[in-house]
Design brief:
The protein is an alpha/beta fold. Helices cover about 45% and strands about 20% of the residues. The protein has one domain: Rossmann fold. α4 packs parallel to α5. The protein is globular.
């Protein structure tokens, strides 16, 4: 599986370590963070510098062919990344609550069928 991580903060390390243990099944191909320095350091630590690094999830999702996107953002920082990934057929693992309200969560979950 080709995987990307959105948000290179604390919990992202746990997901990257798990991916490294599954290296024969999962390849970390892209990273996205508001901090370019964090993403580049994360890339060196977990992908040997081979992953593409982005500062905007729109660019990541437009340019990289993914099987799974691991979203490691707090719920207040979610924008449209879940809907965009779902529209592209990318599987999602969303860290933390998916949203701050149930209405917002249902909108995200139902977005795949609406965006096709």
């Amino acid at each position: 599986m080709r995987a990307a991580i959105l948000g290179c903060g604390g919990i992202a390390h746990t997901h990257a370590q798990a991916m490294r243990q599954l290296a024969d099944q999962v390849e970390l191909v892209a990273l996205c963070s508001r901090s370019d320095a964090n993403a580049r350091a994360f890339n060196e630590q977990y992908a040997g510098g081979r992953a593409a690094v982005f500062s905007a999830h729109h660019a990541l999702l437009a340019q990289v062919d993914l099987d799974v996107l691991v979203v490691c953002l707090p719920p207040f920082a979610h924008s449209d990344e879940i809907e965009l990934a779902a529209a592209r057929g990318v599987h999602l693992l969303v860290e933390k609550p998916i949203a701050l309200t149930s209405d917002e969560a249902w909108r995200m979950v139902s977005s795949k069928s609406r965006l096709r």
